[in-house]
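Okay, is this right?
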Amino acid sequence: QVQLQESGPGLVKPSQTLSLTCTVSGGSITTNYYYWSWIRQPPGKELEYMGSISYGGTKYYSPSFKSRISISRDTSKNQFTLQLSSVTPEDTAVYYCARGPRGISSAHFEGLMGPLNEYDPWGQGTQVTVSS
């Protein structure tokens, strides 16, 4: 079965770049027709779609992050990564990687996740705190 695991520093200083890696096992990130996403949940707030990379390497970003976000992949390692630049304390959140959604639609360009059941499985999440 497919499993995802987030990794990266748990503490990032303001103005720095948050970098996380999602390691996928049990399935290839290049398998048609899956998408691979980054989602976060700030404390006390709802899940927030950040962006996705497709099985073919096409990238999709929420407009809320477009100026700061970069999603990449290393197919040889079956990993995809998140980089979020110029972070502030408001970027403190639990960060998740997940397989999904089922397909990319215009909703995702508006920063919407779509149905939660289109994301499966999820990584366990990793806490990232932005603080000096």
Observations:
- Helices lie at 106-109.
